[in-house]
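Morning - HDE inputs below, output right after.
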Amino acid sequence: MKPGSVGRRAGADPDADAPRGEGGELHQQAGGERPQLTTNMGVVIADNQNSLTSTPRGPTLLEDFILREKITHFDHERIPERIVHARGSAAHGFFELTKSLKKYTRARILTEVGERTPVFTRISTVAGGSGSVDTPRDVRGFAVKFYTKEGNWDLVGNNIPVFFIQDAMKFPDIVHAVKMEPDRGYPQASAAHDTFWDFISLTPESMHKIMWAMSDRAIPRSLRFIEGFGIHSFRLVNEEGKSTFVKFHWRPKLGVQSTLWDEAMKLQAADNDFHRRDLFESIQAGNFPEWELGVQLFTEEEADAFPFDHLDPTKIIPESLVPLQMVGRMVLDRWPDNFFAETEQVAYCPANVVPGIDFSNDPLLQGRLFSYLDTQLIRLGGPNFHQIPINQPKCPFANHQRDGHMQMQVHKGRVNYEPSSLQDDSPRADMKAGYRSFAEQPDDGVKGRVRPESFADHYSQARMFFRSLEAPEQAHVASALVFELSKVETPKVRERMVGHLINIDQSLAQRVADGLGLDALPPAQKAAMAPIDMPAAPEVRIIGRMRETLKGRAVGILIDEGSDAAALKALVKAAQSAGATVKIVAPKLGGAVLSDGKKQPADGQLQGTPSVVFDAVAVLLSEAAGKKLAKDSAAVDFVAFAWAHLKAIAHDAGAAPLLKAGNVGKDAGIVDAGDTQAYIKAASTRQWAREPKVRNLA
Ligand code: HDE
């Protein structure tokens, strides 16, 4: 078009059948189904493709209120991400009580068997930013908002039952230490760097948590396979005002399952959203993630007899001391409609409790009671964030708090104070139904900044944890320590850490020292209190408690032109009946023509669907395809990594050259594709016995 000429602008034809956006139903086109596109003021927009310019090739006019409104809103689309737990995924669901705790609490959610309470549960990593990967070695946040009839109760926990520090005063320090280093801006979502280990090696109270964080607990297979823990002791308070201490636990119905470290690292490249996708897809498929709620209940007198202080959040209460009772279940059955409105804007707070649930004096919990509300004020922009739909209680709520940024309620009447006599419907406190704090008798200490003597044992439970693990799990802890400390550039930090390990377990220290290539063991770190030997706690293991099942797991079957149609059908049927999700992988997404002449579409293209995303694989190939794929690195990696990651592999004769190229050996997990029964058995677990053949662990 010539300069200055008048005519049609480049860009999409506004009259064409192009998407016009979803939203308000106020402006229905006469006779049309689709709503009209409008500005936020409700003015119908005629052209959503072109800015208003002085001439077709001239400058854009400031007058273009439609452009300015659209861009301004876009510029403000992000809110500050959470300083910790920025990366998370969430779902709606319900909680159902199966056993009444009426003897211990007046909280209706824990007394009414069979009553369903809506929940919104967000599971997160801690260290990475909101766009970081799902599978780093990290603790997982496990936050549940119960919308009870008596107000919102938030149980904001982790997938590991202890924490790094004993006092809230240290939280900003540990978070600064683990996040990317401030001068260089890396590493993202990883504890494997100097500042983290510098802090940890100077903080002996963190040793128990470090054992958990270096274990396979910190590299979960999916969010459906993790446990959850409230960590702190809380109180249950009954109608008579009597208090019982409680620890909350979530147990996944599918059991606990983790990845291997090598697998987790490869997953970071294969699928950034591995856990989010799994949660989304399982809910879409109707395989609703489910957890049981367990409680450990104990009295003050019982607590006094424990060989540790239960107010110290670096300690668990072994189940041999206080058994776990299952009292309810949580099912997540609905993905959020909008990620930002719900998952991003949800505001959890451990101070959100209901009558009958109260706090303990755990100094970490006490600090948290302040922090969460405070952080929402900056993150969500003001004091009315409780009015955002995801944060609103589902029971009535009314008080005299007024105005403020983004006030959504239109309060009526003259009375916004209490006491008052001008308005009969003005809300009043209710002594009987209302929240009453437990009348605790303070102990006779003096005011001061003092760490209790009873918090001084930093190593006994770390030792108990390590010694309770099965041999492969112990090897993973040792190897994880070697991996992490090998990323630490400062020798004295590495040595200081090994000095702590000596206090935990001499053999562990030796293995890590060997793995790091230290010439000799450094001196042990001075312990504030000599560790004691505690009985083994089998509940901390994963091996043995992992369910042998294909439920919640995925099987990937690699096919190509001419693959055996009958064998494929039989394998798919067997895996699906055992509860697995089955995906077909092929060199082309369009699939391949099978031996019966029919085309089988693929769910994933080989290059982009490596075996790390599956729990077990199968390879069904014609003789020609087997030879061809033996020269294809993606196919070779597919089988080589399945072997290295201790997965079951079913194969037919045609796949033999590919297995050979991938150096796949022989064991109980390498199964003839015709023997579906043997394959399902092998696929329902990991081949732990194979590990020494494929990896030199510390
Ligand atoms: Fe948190 N933590 N935390 N934390 N935490 C936050 O609150 C804090 C701690 C946990 O999915 C923040 O809304 C302090 C222990 C979860 O939105 C912040 C201390 C446990 C989530 C905060 C702790 C947790 C958070 C950041 C030490 C396990 C994510 C954003 C005293 C029992 C919730 C936000 C979600 C989030 C503070 C320690 C769990 C800054 C000061 C221990 C699951 O307020």
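Note: The chain is about 25% helix and 15% strand.

O.
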